[in-house]
Amino acid sequence: MITSKKIRAKTPRALVGWREYVGFPDLDIPFVRAKIDTGARTSALHATNLHHYDVGGEDWVRFTVPARKGRPEHRVEAPLAGVKKVTSSNGEAQRRFYIHTKMKIGSRIFSAEVTLTNRGQMGYAMLVGRTALLRRYNVDVAKSWVQGGGPTKEVSK
């Protein structure tokens, strides 16, 4: 007996390591060094000098992504998607601005929600959470820089 179920073509998932280079085409940022964190729900980008302002009745945010490890400083303006409460790994709750933007890991470009926070004390300018990875990537925690896209194309195992 044949049942009527929708058959969906599945796009194969790409592989990422525990750290990767992530680009932001809409923000003109070619790459940032990112830690892949399946324990985090949301993605977070290192941003300083945050400034919220109004453009014709719409909320916008201006911020700086500081220079780091081979990447120059970037000053960014983007539509503000909202403010959300995020609980960090140390249990501290913060209210953070977030934006919707295109994110690029390897050859794949997709829309993602990214919170803006000061990650100056962290080892990586970006934290990629599980929501951005969902149905797109599998993570191999024993590998790094699998997708390339940064200042070098080396892959370590």
Can you tag this structure with a few keywords?
disordered C terminus; Cathepsin D, subunit A, domain 1; mainly beta
Per CATH, the architecture is Beta Barrel
Count the beta strands.
Answer: 12
What is the CATH topology classification name? Cathepsin D, subunit A, domain 1
Beta-strand residue fraction: over 45%
Alpha carbon gap, first and last residue: 48 Å
Q: Can you tell me the CATH superfamily?
A: Acid Proteases
**Which ranges are low-confidence, i.e. pLDDT below 50, for 5 or more consecutive residues?**
153-157
The oligomeric status of these chains comes to single chain
Secondary-structure-based class equals: mainly beta
**Overall pLDDT level:** 89
Going across the major beta sheet, what is the strand order?
Answer: 2-3-11-4-10-9-8
What's the number of helices?
A: 1
The helix content is under 10%
Walkthrough of the structure:
With 157 residues, the protein is mainly beta. It has a single domain (14-140), classed as Acid Proteases (Cathepsin D, subunit A, domain 1), CATH 2.40.70. 3% of the residues lie in helices and 52% in strands. It has one helix and twelve strands. The chain has one helix at residues 130-133, and strands at residues 14-17, 19-24, 29-37, 43-46, 48-55, 58-65, 74-79, 82-87, 93-105, 108-117, 126-129, 137-140. The strands form three sheets. A seven-stranded mixed β-sheet has the order 2-3-11-4-10-9-8. A three-stranded antiparallel β-sheet has the order 5-6-7, with no helix packed on it. A two-stranded parallel sheet has the order 1-12. The longest helix is centred in the last third of the chain and has 4 residues, at 130-133. It is globular, with a radius of gyration of 17 Å. 31% of the residues are buried.
